[in-house]
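User: Predict the structure for this protein chain, please.
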Amino acid sequence: MLPGLPTLPLSPHAPVQRLERFAAALSRSLAPLPGLLLALLLLLPLSACSGVAQPSQKVLLSALSLQIELTQQAIASSLALDPVGAPQVSRVRVESQQAIAIGEGRGLHLTGRFDWRLPADPIRVDSRFDLYLQRGERGQSWRLARPAGSADGSNQDWLIDPLPLAGERV
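Assistant: Here is the predicted structure, written as structure tokens:
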């Protein structure tokens, strides 16, 4: 916001000195404007080069659904049960996003909240999520990345799963 300009009566009878003071005050008030505009113009392109872009809502819904399904499959397998089916995921709210390296590629660590429910279950659950997404080689797709410990004790190993195409299930 610009500082307030002095209010001077501008009548045809105003002395020349008052007009000169008004012009000087106006000039001082507007002096920072070109520098501010230049700074904004320089910062704008940098935001586009910040590394990894935010995935779309559709990608987040797909990744969360896949993460739930993979967890359900692992639990069902260990208990010798049939998997329940695909969850219904909605209302994803990202609270934080951090660019990270996942294996040899670029990725994101996202945290936040989402709503979900199991098929035929009327209860919708609001849950926190901790999600890792790896950017595809050409930067046009995303994959679900899950931490898998460390074989050598120093580097994180990852399980990488491609996100299903629209309508495709795990």
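The longest strand covers residues 88-102.
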